Amino acid sequence: MSFFCYQLGVKSVQTAGIIIEYNPMHSGHIHLIEETRRLLGPDTAVVCVMSGDFVQRGDFAVVGRRARAKAAVMSGADLVLELPLPWAVSSAERFADGGVQMLAAAGVVTHLAFGSECGDAAALTEMAACLDSELYQAGLRRFLGEGMSFAACRQAVVGSILGAEKAALLETPNNILAVEYCKSLLHRGSSIQPLTVPRRGAAHDGAAQVEENPSASAIRELLRRGEREAALALMAPAMGEAYREEEAAGRAPVFLENCERAMLARLRTMTEQDFTALDEGREGLCNRLYRASRTAASVAEVLEAAKTKRYAYARLRRMALWAYLGLTPVDFPAEVPYLRPLAANAAGRALLARMRKTASVPILTKPADVRRLGEEARTLFALEARAADLYALAYPDLAAAVGGSAWKEGPVIV
């Protein structure tokens, strides 16, 4: 296993960043935090950049942002920053780049820690350099023109450049996301060093068993099936506690289906031009979604009717979610305009004090700070506030879905 910038005997205190969703947090997530401190030193500060109420695969987070952020700090993180919505619900490439932007903007982060199946930062960085090369881009354009899926094209092009053995790194989900982290670091010329920890336990989408480290998707499936106790047994202890509190307040579990009629209503009232605005690649996928939305009686039916072998299912889910939230890719900012803390402990508050001197963008610790920002940042925060209100409509208890939370809440102090 290869790690960058780690030297035995170095006593300087490091700050590690982790880009996560914690949807929900489980033992594998705690393992990454613990391994990061084992490798960099027990005094290492850990800053998490976490998706808010909506996640990268185009779905509602099963528990809200504040509860997940609190659980993260109680489980070993020092500070949790919210990844703004346009990056949180985008492709793996944009998701990763948004997280890297935020860690770099903080001005205090020395390492980016992440899990991977291979556990080899050098191999992942080599792959990232390949994907960022003109040789790769030229090959990708050629293969995409033949009608292959993006994943198949990427595999074929990388195989032709680096060989089939190295291209096999792109066959597993955590390696793919890890490569995107490394690619963003390289592309931005960041001094932050990649630090990878081998993933252990169930695969990203694997079935859950109590005796093994589960995947977050398996825990969500248990909750969806009503197997509450089995799901709670697989969560990190602090996450389980936070979940119970949210459940008692009528705010968990949250599933897309809770807002299905609202999503279908939005899709059916959209015009063809509205759907076109959702299609980043202008590849005709919007037309398939438009036609499917005219007749389907569930979001799942819309996606099933619109999907093809060429397009990832998650991309369709994101487009449907963008429609519900009123997002269009053309409005996505190019750069993250501010850092917004969701939760912190004493060490995290001390880190925030340092960041106020080192950060390259404003830090929002209270909603009133928004008024001092530029127009683009104010527009983004208003978008986040609206999305939070739409997320609340998916609470099991509609009486708990009071709007305006984003304009009232500060960070959770643990």
Mind sketching the topology for me?
Blueprint: E1 15-20, H1 27-40, E2 45-51, E3 54-55, E4 59-60, H2 65-74, E5 79-83, H3 85-88, H4 92-106, E6 111-116, H5 121-131, H6 134-144, H7 150-162, H8 164-167, H9 173-187, E7 193-198, H10 216-224, H11 228-234, H12 237-248, H13 260-269, H14 272-276, H15 285-295, H16 299-306, H17 313-325, E8 341-344, H18 346-358, H19 375-392, E9 412-413
Parallel strand pairs: 1-2, 1-6, 2-5, 6-7, 8-9
Antiparallel strand pairs: 3-4, 5-8
CATH superfamily of the largest domain: HUPs
Number of helical elements: 19
What count of domains describes the coordinates?
A: 2
Instruction: Give me the count of strands.
Output: 9
Specify Rg, calculated over alpha carbons: 21 Å
Q: What is the terminal separation in angstroms?
A: 35 Å
The CATH architecture of the largest domain can be named as 3-Layer(aba) Sandwich
Please state the structural category. alpha/beta
Query: In CATH, what is the class of the largest domain?
Result: Alpha Beta
Share of residues in strands: 5-15%
- CATH names the topology of the largest domain as Rossmann fold
